[in-house]
Amino acid sequence: METSGLKLALRRGWWVFLALLVLTAVEYLVLLVMPAGNLIYMIIMNLVDAALILYFFMHIGHLWQKESH
Asked: Tell me: the pLDDT tens digits for 6-47?
């Protein structure tokens, strides 16, 4: 990977990390504001968390790409 591609990947990784931090803070605030009846909101936010982690940090999208030799 060339230097500019590496910088772009690193920048994207930091943005995803920041998004995960914001989602975690929002989850905490939802818990404080609505201690009862927040299940659907927590499920949605946790699914978004899981999708971000799987796609960007575990590179699950690469599983379906053709291999290049």
From this structure: 898 889 889 999 999 999 999 999 989 988 888 898 999 999
Tokens encoding 69 = 């030799």
Give CA angle at 58 (54, 62), nearest 5°.
95
The parent domain of residue 16 ranges over 3-63
Name the residue among 49, 1, 2 with its Cα closest to residue 25: 49
Tell me the HSE value of 50 on the side-chain side, using a 13 A CA sphere: 6
Predicted TM-score (pTM) above 0.85: no
Whether 68 is covered by a domain: the verdict is no
Write the CA distances from 8 to 14, 53, 55, 60, integer angstroms: 10, 18, 16, 19
